[in-house]
Amino acid sequence: MTVPRDFDCVVKHREQVLCGVVKTVFDCAEIASHALPGQFVQIEPSPDVFPVTRRPITINRLTGNGFELLFDVVGSGTELMAQMRPGDTVRVLGPLGRGWAIDPGSSWLLIGGGLGAAGFQFLMNSVDSVTVLIGASGSDRVVPLDSCRVITEDGSAGEKGLVTALISEELLDGADSIAVCGPVAMMEAVWNTIPEKHRRKVQVSTESRMGCGWGVCDGCSIPVSGGGYKKCCREGPVFPGVEIDWKRWKEAGL
Amino acid sequence: MTVPRDFDCVVKHREQVLCGVVKTVFDCAEIASHALPGQFVQIEPSPDVFPVTRRPITINRLTGNGFELLFDVVGSGTELMAQMRPGDTVRVLGPLGRGWAIDPGSSWLLIGGGLGAAGFQFLMNSVDSVTVLIGASGSDRVVPLDSCRVITEDGSAGEKGLVTALISEELLDGADSIAVCGPVAMMEAVWNTIPEKHRRKVQVSTESRMGCGWGVCDGCSIPVSGGGYKKCCREGPVFPGVEIDWKRWKEAGL
Amino acid sequence: MSFPPAIRRKFWGHDFSSPVMLASGTAGFGEELLDLKCLSGVGAVVSKAVTLKPREGNLPPRLLETPFGLLNSIGLANPGVHHVLNCILPAAAALPCPFLINVAGESVDEFADVVNILEDSSVHIGYEINVSCPNVAEGGTAFGVDPEVVLRVAQGVSRVTDRPFSVKLTPNGGDIVQSAEAAVEGGASAVTVCNTFLGMHIDWKTGKSVIRRKVAGYTSPALLPLVVAKVWQVSNAVSVPVISSGGVSRGEDVLQLLAAGAQMVQVGTRLMRRPFAASELMDEMKKLTGE
Amino acid sequence: MSFPPAIRRKFWGHDFSSPVMLASGTAGFGEELLDLKCLSGVGAVVSKAVTLKPREGNLPPRLLETPFGLLNSIGLANPGVHHVLNCILPAAAALPCPFLINVAGESVDEFADVVNILEDSSVHIGYEINVSCPNVAEGGTAFGVDPEVVLRVAQGVSRVTDRPFSVKLTPNGGDIVQSAEAAVEGGASAVTVCNTFLGMHIDWKTGKSVIRRKVAGYTSPALLPLVVAKVWQVSNAVSVPVISSGGVSRGEDVLQLLAAGAQMVQVGTRLMRRPFAASELMDEMKKLTGE
Ligand SMILES: Cc1cc2nc3c(=O)[nH]c(=O)nc-3n(C[C@H](O)[C@H](O)[C@H](O)COP(=O)(O)OP(=O)(O)OC[C@H]3O[C@@H](n4cnc5c(N)ncnc54)[C@H](O)[C@@H]3O)c2cc1C
Ligand SMILES: Cc1cc2nc3c(=O)[nH]c(=O)nc-3n(C[C@H](O)[C@H](O)[C@H](O)COP(=O)(O)OP(=O)(O)OC[C@H]3O[C@@H](n4cnc5c(N)ncnc54)[C@H](O)[C@@H]3O)c2cc1C
Ligand SMILES: Cc1cc2nc3c(=O)[nH]c(=O)nc-3n(C[C@H](O)[C@H](O)[C@H](O)COP(=O)(O)O)c2cc1C
Ligand SMILES: Cc1cc2nc3c(=O)[nH]c(=O)nc-3n(C[C@H](O)[C@H](O)[C@H](O)COP(=O)(O)O)c2cc1C
Ligand code: FES
Ligand code: FES
Predict the structure, then answer these.
(1) What are the DSSP calls for C162-196, one per residue?
(2) Interface of B with C in 234-253 (CB under 8 A)
């Protein structure tokens, strides 16, 4: 595992993309050269004392000399982050966590829901063979990726329906690894759609409210099968699907 | 007494004057048309929740359509105020308090120490005959006034020494009213320099840490002769010198 | 209770279109509120503390702002109950909303003595019995932390008045639920949760506290979660209405305290910065709930 | 004491070039600190709480950030004393600074039982006895508010170890000075002032608390004046050193707590945001004092 470090990164680019979503590019050669697909960074929304914790965001893709984030503006922390402008210096801790476990030469099926597909481009760039399925509420919530099959709830982009409708036995058979990322309810639906025999291939990228993001506070627990918890920030955010205790995770209702 | 009101004022002008002192001009016809010399306003240093109280600043002078403040940057509140720029909207409550009691046709002697002379120009503009004595640590701390005699501790402007040295029996005899404003220690020295027989003519402009500034919290008490306190913000900030309990005021060490 | 909580409500048999009360010590006796015409949105006003004898209050400085809050050490400054009754209450009759008198005392009996004298006025709808001021040597916090003392104070007050009264409890030690229960047993018609938290600021350069009594009452919008927890605990334990006091700076804070079980919500420190706080809070609440 | 307070100091017979301790529950068992190499400026590390049996901790969400602070409801998650002793402590030996183990229990005896087992390790210089966790049903706050229980817990620990220990007190009710005195009477070599304040956040739209145990431990830099007051009160009352815990976000906060009477100063929430907090605080302090 690479050791995360705490950097003052300069914002290079900032753009409003999709509906309520902001794309921000940071310069940081060190994070860029160490980051692996599925890892995240901890962003300081403000140099002020408040908010007292950072905000975890997945590395969406690497740029030449840095990395790009794609985030939903959902509360006060992401609102502050949305105000970051080119030239601003921002404290960023990273790269953090365990990303996707990638076997050389494996073929991948990626299943994303909404902003959960943020980070897929990085994974796509790192594997040889990949099929991508994206579900979103509407066209204005479809994360832009090099190539993917899209389905939207309102039919405004791609087919009309839920992403589970795109999952076929054929796609599952053809994949060595299956990556799932999105809201918990979507991930659970995908999990339930995937037949038992394919489940060992599934990896899921989890989310949890984080305190530290680097393993010291035990605030980000994900319930695992057989009882107990694992830390989303350090042992995750990507876990084998079979390791998750889906029942308790849903009960937690994060 | 005019009723103070709470206004969103626009900053018209902002300038660094003297050493560590900022001059800010606000547009506000209503405050300008009601304010009297010696009154103050309560400035909201930031629209944020913190700081939880405002900052009281004397009206230095009226401008055509508003008023000018002159303030020392001494802490976090005044630091935020120093960042206000033309075009910014700032919440201002005013005009507040009781200013100088002015008898028509009276001749005045004004004795100011440092930034205590902020506000003197407004008073000078409102009386017919006036002599002004100003003491300051150095030339870079002399509040600019239309005409005045200056003395500085380091001799960098006017004579060298303390403002008490400029006070003469002749000046005291010639004044119907004597206005004193400055740090407590300076005001006390002036008070002690003035012979008993002239003391009834003296008015002093007091300062105190303020909570509300409009009379509800009892936080701004000034010790008065005969025991008890009066509210700096509502019964002051200008008081007859004889009303002050100088001993307890010094003990309070505001 | 239904959610979101209703903004209009009943309290002590009165109808209130606003749950916002102006807290004791931050609203004077109403005179300045009338002068500023800042009573729109105010459900009720609580007077500053009244004691039997006049109290000068503490030697200044009485206030100190810290980066995220305010320390106060006023010391129950007030002209004494007789002056209040004769010279101040008559003017408070002009208030367009219900008025409560906050009563403090240095002994168990003094609370009832003060109330007894105030019974001659018909300006106020009831009392707030302050057994929790952190800024005095006698009759303050020490009273509020002992349920036995709270009980006796409440019983004493019950004996001299038929008007409803709330007992204002302390967060500084003891068990606030037990004290609340004692107040109710003693006849209180409400409890106020809670008075200011004991705080202190020391100048590290000198080791000295700027405030002469060293410790002071601390208020801050950041204390809201502490007040919410106490309001929730107390309102689940007692049958009388709970008046919350502390931590409000936004309309959603008032809604949160109502949701936690408060029947009325006081605002203090925010009012000092914003004379029109009650009206601003009401606007924010109406926008949030659509009521 | 002289002012400004010295940054270097002695504690439990050790020389500390930094008074900054990393608070329990916000620094793990040291493993992540070693990984991040963020131990510069750290005077000592306090482990997360260890209990006799493994504890899973509370069902998530365990954290909720409010506008001015953080609510946590971890619930003393830990793998139990035997696993800690055998699999975790050996790695903590690599820490370049003294290490304390925070011990919690569900009964008076359990504290001593855990300490007794940990005596087999020589990695730690002493203990912090946590009688004040607000996030568990048994052995938490309820223990800390009763001086009698504090006394018995401290006596139990004294009997099984010769190492120094601090008793971590609660701010949530009771009388912290009395509890501190009881801890000292029971043999404590220090007291930690204090654990987190009970806080709560309710969603006004639904009336529900996001945190399942409803109330949680609240931390905020805005609580500093409350901690300063308690440190000052306790350090004036007891002869053993006081370790402060709570409210630190800046170098001057550490200096203020030292000036208030703390011998060592813990930092928790700030560390979670800033892994290099100790070193940053030290830089700020040195700049301020010129030491
Ligand atoms: C490992 C990881 C990677 C993430 N990557 C991305 C990403 O690439 N793009 C993106 O838009 N978001 C991502 N998130 C979610 C993002 O961190 C939260 O949206 C953000 O922290 C909310 O902060 P806020 O202050 O704006 O919202 P708040 O005001 O704190 O909360 C607003 C809403 O967001 C939810 N929320 C708050 N914190 C979290 C959290 N840590 N995890 C999940 N939900 C939360 C709350 O329940 C609430 O409903 C990621 C989260 C994790 C744990
Ligand atoms: C009626 C009145 C009129 C004033 N007029 C002016 C003016 O025209 N120009 C000007 O520069 N200043 C004036 N002051 C002082 C000014 O209000 C304070 O300097 C300011 O409030 C400090 O705020 P801060 O947050 O920057 O400082 P803080 O960080 O709060 O404190 C810094 C220092 O200022 C002192 N201080 C804080 N508040 C006050 C206060 N209310 N009164 C006196 N000292 C205080 C503190 O003791 C401390 O030493 C006036 C004060 C009053 C009461
Ligand atoms: C300056 C000041 C004076 C106060 N005086 C009193 C008082 O006389 N009696 C009383 O019961 N409470 C008094 N309080 C406490 C307030 O009534 C209120 O309970 C407290 O400020 C918490 O509310 P807030 O967070 O909205 O300020 C005072 C508070 C302040 C800030
Ligand atoms: C996430 C979290 C977990 C904590 N866990 C423990 C614990 O296990 N044992 C304990 O004694 N204190 C625990 N605490 C309290 C801290 O040790 C510390 O006393 C408190 O956070 C106050 O310090 P701060 O304001 O610097 O955060 C925890 C605090 C937090 C925020
Ligand atoms: S967020 Fe702190 S351990 Fe994961
Ligand atoms: S500042 Fe509140 S009464 Fe004067």
Answers:
(1) -S-EEEEEPSSSB-HHHHHHHHHHTT-SEEEE--P
(2) 234, 248, 251-252
| Assigned architecture for domain A5-96 | Beta Barrel (2.40)
| Pick from D68, D71, D225: CB nearest C200 | D225
| Upper half-sphere CA count for residue B211 (Cβ side, 13 Å) | 31
In angstroms, the CA D50 to CA D123 distance is: 15
| Radius of gyration over every alpha carbon of chain B, rounded to an integer in angstroms | 17
d(Cα A80, Cα A76) in Å, to the nearest integer?
6
- Whether D248 lines ligand 4, by a CB cut-off of 6 Å, is yes
User: ipTM of the assembly?
Assistant: 0.96
Determine whether the shortest distance from the Cβ of C102 to ligand 3 is under 6 A. Answer: yes
Q: What is the Å distance from ligand 6's center to C178 Cα?
A: 35
Residue B76 at interface with chain C, using a CB cutoff of 8 Å: yes
Distance between CA atoms of D60 and D64, rounded to whole angstroms?
10
- Residue A184 · residue A249 · CB < 8 Å: yes
What is the CATH topology of the domain spanning A107-252? Rossmann fold (3.40.50)
Q: What are the backbone angles phi and psi of residue B242, rounded to the nearest 5°?
A: -70, -15
Report angle CA D121, D127, D130 to the nearest 5 degrees.
130
Domains of chain D: 9-57+75-196+220-289 (3.20.20.70)
Contacts of C35 in chain B (CB under 8 A): 3, 215
Tens digit of each residue's pLDDT (9 = 90 or more) over A2-55: 678 999 999 999 999 988 999 999 999 999 999 999 999 999 999 999 999 999
CA of C75 from ligand 1 middle (Å) equals: 46
Segment D180-199 shows an average pLDDT of: 98
What's the pTM? 0.97
Report CB contact under 8 Å: C3, D226. no
Q: What are phi and psi of C14, to 5 degrees?
A: -100, 155
- Tokens encoding B203: 């008015």
